[in-house]
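Journal club side-thread
Mid-discussion, someone asked how the predicted structure for our own chain would compare to the paper's figures. Pasting it here so we can look after the session.
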Amino acid sequence: MIPISDSRGFASDNYAGIHPDVLSAIASANTGHVPAYGDDAVTAAAVERFRTVLGAQAEVFFVFNGTGANVTALQALLRPWENVICAESAHINVDECGAPERILGSKLVDVPTPDGKLTSDLVRAAYLGSGDQHHVQPRVVSITQSTELGTLYSIDELRALSNTAHEFNMYIHMDGARISNAAASLGVSLKATTADVGIDVLSFGGTKNGLLGGEAVVFFRPELAEQALFIRKQQMQLSSKMRFVAAQFLALLDDDLWLRNASHSNAMAQRLVGAVKDVPGVTVTRAVQANSVFAILPRAAIPQLQSAYPFYVWNEALQEVRWMCSWDTTEDDIDQFAKLVAEIVPASA
């Protein structure tokens, strides 16, 4: 018998289960024998659905996970002597075990930022050594929407960054592990925060928004996708039973499920910050713009809270924690956790 856990927590939106509509779509695809490796009707339909949402020019390649999406996307843009300018806190720099540099042989130029966001001025300052054979050559600006610090790029900020990258003959890549949360919070379409602002390649996240396991690499300039079939295979990101990955995206993009899931997790983060921000001993450190809440707590309170509701310490030195809300976080989850915070934190301060 498979062990069943009913524990709830705020550690990661990866902890949440599969949305029932997504699970149903996987089951619906589980009939008969169909061609493997994406040469099937379900995958073709999912690609067309992406084009309806993101633009007819989009070239879409389904992969297994976020790191695979980022590495596959970046390899299509880079040669080993070229670099990637990114925020110091970027997932590709901090949480991918060195995969981009190990697999691609390309240097990451990580730029310190207070809020996880690059700016045109920061990119200009990091654009060094062009044409000099002694230096890695600037080629890609990689940004995350929403960022690892829960912040959002506005539409104007995205357009400015794209313009700056293209001015320098660079590409701009977006790590969109939580692109749905960003678009929902901004009140715009997925296309408005990607293709319409000049993004060249997008790592489109699904796993954090109700999928079993599926991401997509989306090229908005078809010429950049010419080698993507071979890159995906070499990076071990080609699913033999592609229909089960593609079916998940059909469900996610159908009837705006992506938006409903993301809007809910964002709303739960707002409910959480509203419930704890005035608790003595709790210092909310960042504006809540998507589905995460960051706060500083008394050190003694952290393990007591974690024993009941798992979450991660973001910055050990500062005693800053991160609470993530998910598509299936309930109001009761928030209210019960906030009640516990109000009981434990003041007594530990």
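Post-session note: The chain has two domains: 20-255, 257-348.
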